[in-house]
Amino acid sequence: MANIAFIGLGNMGGPMAINLVKAGHQVCVFDLSADAVAHVVEAGASTESNAIDCVKNAEFIISMLPAGKHVHGLYLTEKSGLIHHIMKGSVVIDSSTIDSETSIKVAKALSEQGISFVDAPVSGGVGGAIAGTLSFMVGGSKNEFGQVETILSAMGKNIFHAGDHGAGQVAKVCNNMLLSVLMLGTSEALQLGLANGLDAKVLSNIMSKSSGSNWTLDVYNPCPDVMENVPSSNDYQGGFMVDLMAKDLGLAMETALNSQSSTPMGALARSLYAMHAASGNGGKDFSSVFNLFSK
Fold first, then answer.
1. Rounded to whole angstroms, how far apart are CA atoms 214 and 189?
2. Does 11 share its domain with 128?
3. Which residues are catalytic, by number?
4. What is the rounded distance in angstroms from the CA atom of residue 170 to the CA atom of residue 268?
5. Tell me, what's the pLDDT at 127?
6. Structural domain tally of the chain?
7. What CATH number is given to the structural domain containing 68?
8. Domain residue limits at 252
9. Same structural domain for residues 82 and 122?
10. Is the CB of residue 192 less than 8 Å from the CB of residue 250?
11. In this predicted model, what pLDDT tens digit does every residue of 222-266 receive, in sequence order?
12. What is the pLDDT of residue 199?
C-alpha cells in the first residue's frame, strides 16, 4: 500500500480520497475547508495543518483543484511551492481539469527535480467519485502511466493513457464539449415534445430505444421527475455545476484556438452555458440548461 497526499477535497476530491483510504492506502489530506478535511479524516485519513507537511513523506501526491492558476501556484510558487518539498522519486497526479499548457509546464519543472508527473482529469461526476467508477484520462510517459495505474484503479474503473503530458487535459475538454452539446440537444428535444403535449417519460423512453439514445438522456435525464437520483429531480442540486461546465468549455475553446480547429457546436454551447450561468444558475447542475428551452 502507498503513502499518498491528497490536496483538494471538493465534491469530487473528497470521495476520491475516501476510496483511497478504503483501498488500504495511507492518505494524508489537506484542504482550506476544515469541514471537508474532517469528513475525510472521519473515514480514516490523516491530516496536517498545511500542504507542505502533508506531502513531505508521500510517494504519490494527488491534487484536485479548480483551475490552472491554482495548480501552478500549488506546485511552482517560489519557496512555498510543493516542488521544493516533495521527495525525489515521488509521483504527482493532477486530476484537476485545467489547460494543457499548465500541465506541461508543471510536468517539466517537476521532472527537472526528479519528480514524475501525470495529468489525470476525470469523468463520471460526483456519483462516479463516490462509487469509485470514474474514468481517468492520463497524460504522461508510458512509464509514468504504469506507475499510477494501480493508484487510479482505487478511484476509477476506466483508466486510459491518452498520450504524453497534457494529453489527458485535451481528452477531457473534448469529452466535456461533447457532453455539453448532448445535454443541450436532449433538453431541446424534450422541451419540444412537452410543448406539443407529449409525456416526458414516454418520450424519453422512445428516444432511449431509438437513434436519439445518449448518456444525458439515458443516465442523466434533464427533465424533472423522469428519473430518480439525478439532479434534475432534486431541483438541480448536486452533480456538476454550470460554472464548471462553462469553465471547461472555455478551455475547449482555448484548445481549439491553439490548434486552429473548427468547433461551432462547442462555441454555441459555451455561449449558452455562459448565459445560463450569468442568469444566476452557476451553482446548479449543468442539466439545468433544460430550463433554457421552456416556453
1. 12
2. yes
3. 172
4. 19
5. 86
6. 2
7. 3.40.50.720
8. 170-293
9. yes
10. no
11. 999 999 999 999 999 988 999 999 999 999 999 999 999 999 999
12. 98
